Amino acid sequence: MRIGELAKATGTKAETIRYYEREGILPAADRTAGNYRDYSNEHLATLSFVRRARGLGFSTSQVKELLTLSDNDDKSCSDVDQLVRQQLKEVNRKIENLILLRDELSQMLQSCEASRIGDCQIVERLAQSPQVWR
Amino acid sequence: MRIGELAKATGTKAETIRYYEREGILPAADRTAGNYRDYSNEHLATLSFVRRARGLGFSTSQVKELLTLSDNDDKSCSDVDQLVRQQLKEVNRKIENLILLRDELSQMLQSCEASRIGDCQIVERLAQSPQVWR
DNA sequence: ATGCACCTTGTAGCAACTACAAGGTCAAGC
DNA sequence: GCTTGACCTTGTAGTTGCTACAAGGTGCAT
């Protein structure tokens, strides 16, 4: 299949696929007589894997690692497990930070509500300290 | 104050401050006889504002908007409110996605636990469809 | 006058794409 | 057989928000 078809099948832009090839994430495809890339079902499977892992927040280098790990089956399981665990930790960290952030933002909005009659405090809140800003 | 002092006071690298100046986020400072940047307390307040807003996940262009909004006091409150609301929505979206992601990752780990004796399913799970990957 | 911390500008790098530009290929329609 | 249009090729530059040099200037203490 040609790059456009693969792109459609995986929801990836053709340019991104070429980028993955340049970066060694996706193996290079065969070429047709007219120098078009010609992808196999293995490519399709690999690219799906890559997109899914990226969607789960793995970096491209982690994805590369996952790919090589899944190539040699023995011993790989604990390494893969390790990577997933690390990623899970990272995700939890992000969630916690975002929740703090959400709380701050909604407090800002509430302080705006509260002072409908006067002028809202959002800018002051952002400026944080009670000094007049500008 | 010189750039290093401002940097220390706000927890920003000097290079980042110069970057903000180039990008028009922070107004240019006066210069000393020796061509060093010489910052005022207003700069300090503005930079604190910028860092705080960035820390809350506002993009640099949103920060610029917030800065200009807070410059002309009238009418600004509802616009600021709007920006904060938008940001809050975005943050909630991110949190939801991350929670989905977390669930998937921990399910992966559990399927690994479950099949201690056999080989773990993580790679298969990533590959998603039951086709053999590679 | 010499060392050192600090400053200046300019440029390049990071991640992970995305967006051109300028040109080649291929099938369909007239 | 020739054109049109969709698709493909390579290469390069842009995006966001910094960060990291390199090569040189300033300011102050010893």
UniProtKB/TrEMBL annotation, chains A, B:
<keyword id="KW-0238">DNA-binding</keyword>
<dbReference type="Pfam" id="PF13411">
    <property type="entry name" value="MerR_1"/>
</dbReference>
<dbReference type="GO" id="GO:0003700">
    <property type="term" value="F:DNA-binding transcription factor activity"/>
</dbReference>
<dbReference type="InterPro" id="IPR009061">
    <property type="entry name" value="DNA-bd_dom_put_sf"/>
</dbReference>
<dbReference type="InterPro" id="IPR047057">
    <property type="entry name" value="MerR_fam"/>
</dbReference>
<dbReference type="InterPro" id="IPR000551">
    <property type="entry name" value="MerR-type_HTH_dom"/>
</dbReference>
<keyword id="KW-0805">Transcription regulation</keyword>
<keyword id="KW-0804">Transcription</keyword>
<protein>
    <submittedName>
        <fullName>Transcriptional regulator, MerR family</fullName>
    </submittedName>
</protein>
<dbReference type="GO" id="GO:0003677">
    <property type="term" value="F:DNA binding"/>
</dbReference>
<feature type="domain" description="HTH merR-type">
    <location>
        <begin position="1"/>
        <end position="69"/>
    </location>
</feature>
